[in-house]
Amino acid sequence: MKRRKTILTLFQGLFFLVSISSILAQEYSLTLNVSDIENSQPLEGVTVLLSPCNCGGITNSSGIFSKRLKGGKYNLLVEYLGYGSKQLTVDLNSNQSFKVEMQIEEEQLSEVVLLAQKRNQNVETPQMGVLELNVRDLIKVPTVMGEFDVLKSITLMAGVNSSGDVSNGVSIRGGSLDQNLMLYDGAPVFNPTHLFGLFSVFTPDAISGVDIYRANIPAKYGGRIASVIEIKVKNPYTDALKIEGGIGLISNRLTITAPLIKDKLMLTAGGRSGFSDLLFPLLIPRLKNTRANFTDSTVKLLYLLNSYNQLSYTNFLSNDFYQLDLISNIENIVSSSNQYDFKTRNHTIKWLHTFENETNLTSRLIYSTYTPQNLFPEIDTENIIRFESQIQYTSLQSEFTNSKNKELSYYSGFEIKRYQISPGALNPGNANSINPVILNTETGYESSVYANLDWNPNPNLALSAGLRLTQFSLLGPFDEAQYDSNGLFDGVMSFGAQETVSSYLNPEPRLGINYKLGEDTSVKMSYARIFQYLQNIYNTNTPLPTSRWKLSDRYISPQKNNTFGLGFYQNFLNSKLEFSLEGYYRKTDNNLTYRPGADFFLSEFIEKEITQAEGKSYGLELSLRKNLGKVNGIFNYTWSRSLLKTNAVDPIGRINNNNWYASDFDRPHTVNATVNFEGDRYNTFSFNFVGQTGRPYTIANGIFETQNVTIPIYLYRNNSRLPTYHRLDFSWKIAYSKDPKRRFKGDWTFTVYNLYSRNNPYNIYYTQRNGGLDGDVFLGSPLGAYELSILKGALVSLSYNFKFQ
Amino acid sequence: MRILKYINFSFLFIFLSCIEPVTPEFDFEENLIIINALATNVPGATNVTVEKTLIEFGDYKSKPISGCSIDLINSDTKERIPFSENEDIYYISDEFKILPGTRWEVEVTLPDGNIYRSTSEQAPAIVSIGAIYSEFNPEMIYDEVYGGYIPGDIIKIDFQDPADEKNFYLFQYRAYQEEMYCKICEESILRDGECLEEPNNPFLMNKYFTYICDQRCWKITYNNEIIVFDDEFTNGKDISKLLVGRVPYETKQDILVEIININISENAYNYYKAIKDLVDNNSGLNAPLPTALVGNFNGITNPESAVLGRFTAGSSEIKSVFIPRNDRSARTLGNIKLPSSEAYGDPIPNPMTYETACVESPNRTSLLSEEKRVLFGEIDTGDLDLDKDSVLDQDDNCITFPNPDQADLDTDGVGDLCDNDRDGDGYILYYENICDSNDLDANQTPVDTDLDFIPDCVDTDDDNDGYSDEFEGIAESDPLDVDSLPLDTDQDGLPDAVESRRRTDPNNPDTDGDGVKDGEDDYPRDPNRS
Q1: pLDDT tens by residue, B5-53
Q2: What is the CATH number of domain A121-804?
Q3: CATH of domain A2-102
Q4: Which one of A103, B155, B258, B516 has the largest count of C-beta atoms within 10 Å of its C-beta?
Q5: Interface of B with A in 219-248 (CB under 8 A)
Q6: Is the domain of B324 the same as that of B305?
Q7: Does B336 touch chain A (CB under 8 A)?
């Protein structure tokens, strides 16, 4: 602990040294704050050209462009795709700051214009494997029941898959669901979906965009080995009240953005709630006792202290409550129903300090908790028996950025994360028929220091090199099981409070190189190494929100990933058409696989149920994107594999005889395409197509019968595949506000999910033969089999969205 | 308690989701050895089965291996007790039982010399069942395949879990219901204990015939799900109203349910729990992924070979509950077929049959103990007279129709009212009526060229030469002359003239090559059907 502190102090000292050294003489600063006139959102990537110096630059993510210049008269040209241009004349004789509001040019604007994306950006930066989606991209994607859904939308991107129509997360480049660091305004989200995987939890109207990093993940991120999915919350830059909302079949939503103190304190508060209590019994009498309620809300407060300091606070809450008729009896508890209650509470405090010399320091303090519970109300009494678990996450991050010099910019910082996991407790309340169980809390610290350098040694070469040094410690109190040489349980070793149980120190280099072969062509290479110390443990297709999380310890080693990437990027027709081809190879270690009969529920020691496997995934991602025009869209094709291999000595730990086998996320072929037809200013039609090789699943190698029950024998895992998954979605957006100046605007969105009613199998399972039932299909088989599809037929929905400003 | 993590969520999506039957897919491996062994304190119940997987005529099976030499070995004294084989199952004796607390293992030597041996298992102490309850629930369990609720009786028990030890329980049931019929022959009739199809009898219109049992007979049904219990969270508690069985409400007949509580070891519990995951918990959205079942047998002569199955030493106890179901108004899941016994005048040959034997099997018994028998009510076993014609059944020559006069024209011992061939001329009443003859006169017989007792007017092959009258007509041979055969080059039963009409190969006895001769193949040009 002490030593780490010293390192941190050193690093902080370094920042200040750097900042002091860059103080300059006799010049004035010119700062432009560029935003959209309509919604006051800052515009990133706006080109600013200055004459007579013939210099310029682009705005940063806060819409700010800043430059120090000698005093004098300057002509400014501010240009942004889809917004036309603006000219300004400035007489610079002091430090000056301007607010530039850009007006959308209706005639030119195409709905699909990727507003946040700078022209030619894809061939300029050394960042590989990054996907950026802004809110306009996201909102156009037709989704289940008209719900706007971040996670569903990103599965239309190359290299991103879900594990089926119901999936509690996404799989990126063959990784498992928990190998993605999912951040919502910096705070990790442990349960990203409502309704067990049908919708994502992020408040739709509060999102400004999503960045997905899957190749050379920037050094500022760490902790999950496959990707970073950073979901950004809108900054409430506004000077007028604005209300947005929508009414849908499943949920209703409302967001208010308002200035509390003009130009000082601004607020955005959005929420969504879904109450299906009435819906279920109406649709299906069998669901008469089912309750399914969920809410999520995002509140962001922005305080502009002065032009050098910004403070923001983001609060995210997500609640799920489900009540199901008891269909699986829980032992010795007479209860009439199962209730599920999941709560996410995230808090992010961010302080952005900009120094005189355009460098800045960003600090974040994050506290987030996730508390899933199972409740069992006892019959005939008020008592409720609870099974509860919890993750408490606290982190402190501070980062110094210097991007003043276009040729050489850097950032550096530290991050300390504290995980506290209560793996599970059974609380019988006042029921005397159940013994309480409380598993020990696990506490771990993941501390990192990192630095990244972006260097453009010549106009054709860009280099990004980073290093993250991570130290993980699992601290007591902790009970560690001991095993004898035969692997048999041999007592427990207890660690006291703050005693180190196990610790790991790992360097994580990150590297990206971009070489421009021509104005519109570039080649990129990347490498990243990452470690993961927290894992979600489950042996089902997709984890339940109540599934267990586990920190690395002596037996469960941290997961490790080395990713290599090579990409080719070409833009055609003045960047109207972007083409990219990316190849990757990921070598992973210590992936979690489960032993036969594994059971993690309230078990004290789970290492005996887990075998860690090495993995490799590789693939080629081809992407073609047309951004402009009446017909625009994206086409992606991915060829990829994701394989696992155990190296266990004992026969039970050997999966598929220690041979390579397809992981659950192996999808050799994936095609995603989105096409938008922008008919006129009132009608927009969009189509999505998703097609991919079916998920690997396990079929039996034999059968035997015991007690009139035919039992399938399984020797190997994932030895077959489900049928190919494919689906077409359609959406029609009708905007009927004729007058663009009107303060109230409404539009209708009509969506058809699964347009041609494909029954995509989610799973195939065996059943006992029941007389001659379905005998024409099962034929002479000793077992029957059924295919479970989540969606039968097409799902039609209509939602109404409104905006008042 | 462990069950709850696999709760089937699919019903939450029931308004969206659907299930479809598909042809089961296997990656079948032959010659996997499966040994299942159970030793208990119930006399005679200790048994071993040894099977291996194989593909037989394209069907996936596991087949018993006979000729094994098997010993039950006392782990402490090393005493070996041999099993002997009886109809694919190996038993020790009708009296043999093991005592709770003793340790045992099983060694199996296959006919090919390979030896497999289990690890040692200790029979746990018996935990006695206290009270037993049954409650009827018209919505007992939702069945996705059936697409609705299955009504049934839920069986629950109370017991006191011992505080000083971990306990693991496996619950099974055995339920008895009186059999209505001992045999139902679909589109066929029962003769000499077998359902015989009457292929040349176009007049047999009955879909089925029912045959009652020759004595009181009970159908035995078993649990079709695995129910296990672990006292992990309830150690030492009074366990009350624990669900131990679900008995579907198939028919309105009364039912006797015997709950078998088997106390097992922790490893055995884990094994049955794994089976439960494979067969009962495998259908939902969050179903556990299928994995190998790890048993406790190891290869001694070939340690690397895969051997499946398990030896379990259990200590069991039985508690039963009788559930009267007669007076229920709720709908049953199944339907009993309406009686359709053979009747006088049916176009079926003698001897007319009404009943058949209640053959002892795992699914049927007549040997129910007296105390259980009385639960089903007394039946006058003495002087029975079913048709109430004042002639006791034992003396009656026709027990189903009242015939106080006991008339029997042909004196064959079957009363006229029960005799399908009253005059005894070999032609049944039905044929004689159709073919202008008389069943009351042995001298009047219908025309029957081949003398097969199927008169020409109903016989499709009057001369019995193997070629139907229809074929002989097409091929222009004489249908009434057994020596006049149509030209059939490939001898497949289809004359060449018919083959050319059916566009099959007159020179190939099996045109579609599916192994069925063209003459016997309903689809002689489709290799997938016959």
Answers
A1: 333 343 344 445 678 889 999 999 999 999 999 999 988 889 999 999 9
A2: 2.40.170.20
A3: 2.60.40.10
A4: B155
A5: 222-224, 226, 229-230, 232-243
A6: no
A7: no
